[in-house]
Amino acid sequence: MASFPSGVTIVTTADPSGRWWGFTATSFCSVSMEPPLVLVCLATDAECAPVFQRATRWIVHVIHPEHAQLAMRFATRGADKFAEAGFVADDNGLPVLDVASVILDCSVHDRHPAGDHTILVGRVQNVRTGPETPAVYFRRAFHLLP
Length: 146
What we know:
Distance between the termini: 22 Å
Oligomer: single chain
CATH topology: Pnp Oxidase, Chain A
Pfam families: Flavin_Reduct (PF01613)
Shape: globular
Strand content: over 45%
Strand order of the largest sheet: 3-2-6-9-10-5-4
Number of helices: 2
GO molecular function: FMN binding; riboflavin reductase (NADPH) activity
Structural class: mainly beta
Organism: Pseudonocardia petroleophila
Helix content: under 10%
Protein name: Flavin reductase family protein
Number of domains: 1
Number of strands: 12
InterPro entries: Flavin_Rdtase-like_dom, NADH-dep_flavin_reductase, Split_barrel_FMN-bd
Radius of gyration: 14 Å
CATH architecture: Roll
């Protein structure tokens, strides 16, 4: 699958105590226009998996190449993911990057077990786009679209 180019997302949420959680995902796509649905896949053994199993909202950030190191941090178990990363709390207390190519505020629509992952289907409640060109991940490296 490393030979399949894809976008890169950082997905974030908060648990009931307000603690922030997140992960990096390249398995992300649009599902439906009506209602507006997207999906992202999360490994069932990820540290944040139990939180996302209960979360009612999450944020999907389509990142740009300048966030490549941040995406690697969010893919690393035990990393201090949010330290000095430019996140701020939205109106629901969820962590949102101050700059991203696209930011999708999602509410839970469904969850599906799929092998060693869970498919999180979110209903898009709000969209924010920026001028930044999104990163492309291909053969284990980040690339900029020409």
